[in-house]
Write a structure and sequence with these properties.
The chain is of the alpha/beta class. Helix content is 38%, strand content 9%. It folds into 2 domains: 220 residues, no CATH class; 164 residues, Rossmann fold. The two termini are 39 Å apart.
Length: 484
């Protein structure tokens, strides 16, 4: 549906921050990630896995309490509040008119032209609770979650955020709880004027707030839980795809959390994990699943769940269907459409839970929810393009891609007839085991805890995203004060 950008340079696979390091990566965050990864590595040697179920907790917490600015401070709160565990982390949440959120949720029957989204709204956007399905979803925390429900999940979770403030002057960042992607998603096939109406209404509403005028919205953030491609329309022609949400100047001033960024015009957008079916409410529930995932019997070397795409059979996807179909070591869950795969979480997860490697070719865009389902299942993801994860979720994943995933360049499969099976079978069993362990440790960082839980005592995808937002905003404030 979307044209692919020119292929990322090959060494992008090894360099998570790609060629845009200076722009994207504040050096301190970069340092923290390196530090965190090092500590993680050291810790994983010192502590047996069961005693160390969520790595990074201790190390990344550092960013919760940013060091006092060494440049002349823009405010003198920092000094007086160092004892406050919320210092630098207070968030003010707007109370928006319901047309920007609750009214949209109430219209769940018409959020997508071909399907009723109401079954996906309950439980704070997690959807209905799933049954055990013959051991596929053991223990607690499994839901039939739609991949585009992050607006709802995130807002709900924010209500339980431990450092909310009613005083905007005290806030380190301001959250705009609009359902931006539910709104955009419902009108994708209507006129461009219809698609953009509510987003323009929102920025007009914001522009009138004193909180906005204080910084031009540069400390504001919002969630638009689809890929950036749905919000980057260039023209006003009705046959151009998407809304122009992310091109609106006011929104460009904010930080927008999306499921996939455009690595070429990243602006202030931040890519965060797709929601999966797993939403543990406590670290104990999480750990119980991690133990199970370690012990699963994985009868398939590799597997693929997805739909065929019309057109050329020279694509990686077509090759996967061909190679997987011809191999006795490949499991396949073939859907007629992507939505059919999503509607069968049990069948899909059963496959991933019994596979060592899970193939993740590009689809409409470079990323897929399936990558996150695979990680939850303890299945090592196999990518065919660095933009499918490494250049997207740098804050959530290990800096070294080889520790937890495999990259087979798509051109090797399509142009050089590389056998996926041979490439995977070549990896020594000890290396496979180490990678799987890394994948299983990654689970907490890539899932969204049950947003209703007051006891989500582990650092999840939400916590990590918020740390990044707070870091970025603090950095901008300092830059603004320093006159850049
Ligand atoms: C520090 O706070 C005091 C009062 O709390 C205020 O008058 C002063 O302007 C602040 N200084 C700076 C540099 O913001
Ligand atoms: C969007 O398009 C659908 C289908 O054509 C139509 O039923 C609906 O009324 C349109 N919505 C708006 C707000 O124009
Ligand atoms: C964006 O931020 C800049 C710098 O603070 C400000 O001058 C501008 O007015 C802001 N844009 C909007 C639309 O508020
Ligand atoms: C696909 O491959 C087959 C042979 O492998 C070929 O006959 C066919 O023309 C190709 N193209 C399409 C679009 O099927
Ligand atoms: C590709 O590889 C397969 C198996 O290794 C082989 O059977 C086939 O002939 C090769 N195709 C081409 C076009 O080289």
């Amino acid at each position: 549906m979307k044209p692919m950008k020119p292929s990322f340079q090959k060494d992008g696979a090894d360099k998570v921050d790609g060629g845009t390091g200076g722009v994207l990566w504040p050096s301190r965050i970069c340092y923290l990630v390196v530090l965190a990864t090092t500590l993680w590595a050291v810790a994983s040697i010192l502590f047996p896995p069961s005693a160390f179920p969520h790595p990074l907790v201790s190390s990344v917490t550092v960013s919760h309490h940013p060091a006092p600015h060494d440049s002349a401070s823009e405010d003198n709160r920092t000094a007086t509040e160092t004892a406050d565990r919320c210092a630098g982390r207070y968030i003010y949440v707007y109370r928006l008119p319901p047309r920007f959120n609750d009214d949209i949720a109430r219209g769940c029957r018409t959020l997508r032209p071909w399907m009723d989204m109401c079954p996906y709204m309950p439980n704070c956007g997690l959807g209905r609770l799933l049954g055990d399905e013959g051991g596929v979803f053991p223990g607690r925390g499994w839901y039939a979650t739609d991949q585009f429900m992050l607006d709802v999940i995130f807002r709900c979770r924010m209500r339980r955020y431990e450092c909310l403030t009613g005083d905007p002057a005290r806030a380190a960042a301001v959250f705009v709880p609009a359902y931006a992607s539910l709104d955009g998603g419902r009108y994708l096939w209507n006129s461009t004027a219809t698609r953009d109406a509510l987003a323009l209404d929102l920025v007009a509403w914001l522009a009138r707030r004193p909180e906005w005028r204080a910084t031009g919205g540069r400390d504001h953030f919002l969630v638009a839980g689809r890929t950036a491609w749905d919000f980057l329309r260039k023209t006003d022609g009705d046959d151009d795809w998407g809304t122009k949400l992310l091109s609106i100047p006011a929104v460009r001033n904010m930080t927008a959390l999306v499921l996939e960024i455009d690595p070429w015009t990243r602006s202030n957008n931040l890519a965060v994990p797709y929601p999966t079916n797993f939403h543990p409410a406590t670290a104990a529930d999480l750990r119980a699943w991690q133990e199970k995932a370690r012990a699963l019997d994985r009868r398939w070397l590799f597997s693929f769940a997805g739909a065929a795409r019309p057109g050329s059979n020279k694509t990686v996807r077509a090759q996967i269907f061909q190679q997987c179909g011809a191999s006795s070591r490949c499991g396949m869950f073939r859907c007629k459409k992507g939505s059919e795969c999503e509607a069968s979480p049990g069948a899909m997860m059963r496959l991933f839970e019994s596979s060592t490697f899970c193939l993740q070719p590009r689809g409409d865009t470079t990323t897929r929810r399936s990558t996150f389902d695979a990680v939850v299942a303890g299945c090592i993801p196999v990518f065919f393009h660095p933009d499918s994860a490494y250049t997207q979720y740098a804050d959530h994943i290990p800096a070294d891609p080889e520790r937890w995933s495999v990259l087979i360049m798509h051109t090797d499969v399509t142009d050089r007839n590389v056998s996926i099976e041979e490439a995977l079978a070549k990896i020594p069993p000890a290396a496979v085991k180490a990678m799987r362990e890394e994948v299983i440790r990654l689970i907490p960082r890539l899932v969204y805890a049950d947003a209703r839980s007051a006891r989500a005592d582990f650092k999840d995808a939400f916590d990590i995203a918020l740390d990044v937002v707070l870091d970025r905003v603090a950095k901008r404030r300092r830059r603004d004060v320093d006159g850049r």
